[in-house]
Input
Amino acid sequence: MRMSYREALRLALREALQNDARVFLMGEDVGRYGGSYAVSKGLLEEFGPERIRDTPLSELGFVGAGVGAALGGLRPIVEVMTVNFSLLALDQIVNSAALLRHMSGGQCSVPLVLRMATGAGRQLGAQHSHSLENWYAHIPGIRVLAPATVADARGMLAPALADPDPVVIFEHAQLYNLEDELPDDWRCDIARAAVRRAGAQASVFAYGGCLPKALQAAEELAAQGVEVEVVDLRVLRPLDIDTVAASVRRTHRAVVVDEGWRSGSLAAELIARIVETCFYELDAPPARVCSEEVPIPYAKHLEEAALPQVPKIVAAVKELLNV
Amino acid sequence: MTRTRKPRASAERPLELRLLADMLRIRRMEEKCAELYGAGRIRGFLHLYIGEEACATGAMHALAADDNVVATYREHGHALLRGVGMDAIMAEMFGKAAGCSRGRGGSMHLFDVARRFYGGNAIVGGGLPLAVGLALADRLQGVRRVTLCVFGEGAMAEGAFHESINLAALWQLPVLFCCENNLYAMGTALARSESQTDLCAKAASYRVATFRADGMDVRAVFDTVSRAVRQVREGGGPAFVELQTYRFRAHSMFDPDLYRDKAEIEEWKQRGPIHSLSAQLKAEGRLDEEAFLALDAEAEAEVAAAVAFAEQAPWEPVADLLKDVHTPAGAAAGGTP
Ligand SMILES: Cc1ncc(C[n+]2csc(CCOP(=O)(O)OP(=O)(O)O)c2C)c(N)n1
Ligand SMILES: [Mg+2]
Output
């Protein structure tokens, strides 16, 4: 069946709400408004205001309440409108959700799922264009997922809910309208990265909103006779280094595409892991395509220049291959 | 355009006519923005203030030129009335380098620090702690100045509101917290977001003076905010003012506006601030249709000039992308004297 990324997310939410009475969705404008990105549209009518729970503008409060509800035996799905506003809730995510199990000596778990939109590309200005997945991927105690395909939008929620510990799911705002065929087997292993395209000459690693760009770059490179393997990281914590290393062993070259800023980026972490695990497999120093070190500007041409783009990925691969 | 009598120069007009003229300027500018958004000239989020003009107009007229203003993403009107040129605002919306934030900010981040307009902030509640800090700086430097902080009623659920008003009250800082209560935070109605819907009662729990005005009546806003500003300026500590208003348009250009009754919107439109004031002034014999049309034409002409300015303004070269991330060596650090 063909559907959008948004519809796939909604289908997964509906299924979770149907299958488990402990599951509820909470966040700003998830109900009456229909979800700020229309993901939860129609769910209020189906499940009622107790389970599709609109909250006031209180990110710290309602994320913390989600942590408490998870401790209390429920399976909350908390939607923070965007990663930008999750900064107001960071204390509860980092100091409560991620730590409670450890600090209690393993006495409790926090089975919380946090969903948030992320990323730039719509000229929303610096405060609405962050890509801070790496901040969350830095924290022991939480799992971080980045669905980049319709199948993963459909398949990641159930295993995330089944995880006894907090899971943060990043939905790139540029992906909501992405349409694709939902494969018969959309189930997702949230421990593994996924190879999205085969190719022998280099490995391109990407996640979230950069995956379609990486695939587009691979397409353009193929037209020029360069075949690259594209790996969707999709699990940002813990990184699936086995899949990454296996790819590097096949191609001996690595390019990492990351919408985060270069300094301290996930790309930096991935390259460190590649160097640690398969240094002697490499035929060239690993390369990366990240956002420029500037707050994301409003003006369209400057925003585009600040973000990873297909031509930059193509150029990075060609430079690595000396072609 | 119809031939109109040349209006009197704006500075010599009586207050009411200046208020009317400024509401018209905001209205016409924003109507044009909506049109330009449809045409793809303006992008990103655009939050229109249409219907709420009496709030910014009354409040900004109640301030002295030297006061500080901190606003939200729905700040086009406030910026304009603090003296940011319409051409610089329009160029900012276009993303041009001639914009008041050099095209880096967009509609939600209009800045003019020389005029003490400390932005457009797109994080709900994000401006409140800044306002407290600006007022603290004034206090510590012995400057008698008021910091007016504008926010929506939705922001009153954020921790930032509680922390900021507590600090301001505790330290008796000259902040005027100005809540534009338009009854909705995106799709969430006030009663679905606040356990205490009497916003003045909520603020009063921090032991600050509270004021309330009909935010559709620009004269009431002006009078009330003027009283509040006077009290703050005279050292009475912070104050809180609630302006009861309504936005006629959707939250932003992305909002299908499914959560409000059409009848409710229509009812509020009957109380439109421009229409109300001009009707009152006509009834009082202080305005006729011809004079109204002249003011309107003046606003339209200003908008047309601003759009023309923004259209022809150049794009910033991509080579400048990394500019203004850090202060260049040798440049003066930080705020305005
Ligand atoms: C911290 C934060 N959370 C959520 C948002 C998304 N958002 C933008 S405006 C808005 C509604 C704010 O309502 P209110 O404060 O009443 O101001 P109004 O838009 O009505 O002027 C929301 C939820 C945001 N920008 N910042
Ligand atoms: Mg509001």
Remarks:
- Chain A has a mean pLDDT of 97.
